[in-house]
Amino acid sequence: MARAGTGPWGTMGGRKAAFMVS
Length: 22
Fold this sequence. Notes:
It is built from one helix and no strands. It is an all-alpha fold. It is globular. The mean pLDDT is about 60.
């Protein structure tokens, strides 16, 4: 699973992005 807090989204869009990408 993707980790929230990394990437160009940080923690705000990290979870949303991970849910969409994963």
